[in-house]
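This entry is listed below:
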Amino acid sequence: METITTLATFLKEVMRRRQRKPSQLAADLGVSHVTVSRWLSGEDIPNIQSCQRLAEYCGVPIEKILAIVGHLPRVAERPPAEWPEFREYARSKYPAELDEDLITMIEDLIERRRAKKYGEKNP
């Protein structure tokens, strides 16, 4: 995700990739639906423990989550050119072979593998 990612944008992307609703994301993270709603609306931010759960759930470094919510300065994020997200990587590496549907399918398979690795239920 780009450097200027907001918490709401990040959470919406997580929910899209995992095909989860806010209430399902809340259950997955062990927080209330109201808490996730407040995060999505910008009324509140996750505490350190919730950031840790979110990082584990998403498979991203805790520093990235802490930077997104404002607990750390954004300098903790790596530049996108060094560690591109899969979608951008696939577009640049295989522009003729992979269309958007195939890229989405591969992302979903990656998310299912992560979920399996961490003992989570598949969507």
